């Protein structure tokens, strides 16, 4: 995989793993996104070639560390980072306009506690994050791949969750959210069966939306369409 450091580069993002959980949208960056990317990527961007990071070096301090996988246009991530300046946040997104939009927001809000990857999340997990470095992993509204024949493409699968587990501290939280009921049920089945995790709610109950998770455009869209929204918060127990 090639790390995306040139905002004019619209070549496909590839992955070392066989089944890809995302479809690469070939949207162009706006002028504002491109300019923010060019100014801020050297400071806030992380690459696969850097290998295993030391979060204390990457952020210049020791603080609780959060990872958001698939941050879209970055609105929720910057809102969480702005609301919790005592914490650090790493965002992962393969779509370059989303990275540009995030960096534009980071500049406008004067944030210092965000770093970003523009590569497949599998590479970040496998190659870039130390064991037990994360306090929280967040996957909000991933592609539901709602057709049954596409369910194998869903990001939340048993093997993926176990790889996430290895990066979480004991006591760390895996926070998933979706506005597709079938995917919510699938997520719950995966998490209930996942070794080393326990539901923070009784049995197989879904969690109320925590205050730290902003209401996203996907959630608003789901409400307009009459969809529910389901949050799952599972703690790593060993």
UniProtKB/TrEMBL annotation:
Substrate binds at residues 147, 179, 216-219. S-adenosyl-L-methionine binds at residues 68, 93, 120, 143. The keyword Transferase applies. SUPFAM superfamilies: S-adenosyl-L-methionine-dependent methyltransferases. GO terms for molecular function: tRNA (guanine(46)-N7)-methyltransferase activity. Catalyzes the formation of N(7)-methylguanine at position 46 (m7G46) in tRNA. This is tRNA (guanine-N(7)-)-methyltransferase.
């Amino acid at each position: 995989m090639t790390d995306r450091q040139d905002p004019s580069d619209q070549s496909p993002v590839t992955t070392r793993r066989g089944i890809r959980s995302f479809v690469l949208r070939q949207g162009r960056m706006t002028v504002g996104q491109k300019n923010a990317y060019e100014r801020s990527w050297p400071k806030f961007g992380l690459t696969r070639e850097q290998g295993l990071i030391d979060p204390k070096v990457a952020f210049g301090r020791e603080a609780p560390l959060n990872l958001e996988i698939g941050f879209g246009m970055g609105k929720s991530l910057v809102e969480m980072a702005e609301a919790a300046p005592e914490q650090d946040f790493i965002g992962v997104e393969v779509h370059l306009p989303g990275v540009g939009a995030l960096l534009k927001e980071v500049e406008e809000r004067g944030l210092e506690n965000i770093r970003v990857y523009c590569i497949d999340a599998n590479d970040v997990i496998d190659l870039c994050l130390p064991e037990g470095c994360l306090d929280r992993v967040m996957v909000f509204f991933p592609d539901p791949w709602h057709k049954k024949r596409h369910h194998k493409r869903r990001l939340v699968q048993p093997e993926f969750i176990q790889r996430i587990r290895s990066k979480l501290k004991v006591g760390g939280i895996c926070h998933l959210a979706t506005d597709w009921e079938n995917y919510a049920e699938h997520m719950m089945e995966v998490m209930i069966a996942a070794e080393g995790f326990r539901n923070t709610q009784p049995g197989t109950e879904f969690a109320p939306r925590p205050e730290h998770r902003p209401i996203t455009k996907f959630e608003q869209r789901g409400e307009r369409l009459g969809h529910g929204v389901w949050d799952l918060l599972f703690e790593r127990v060993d």
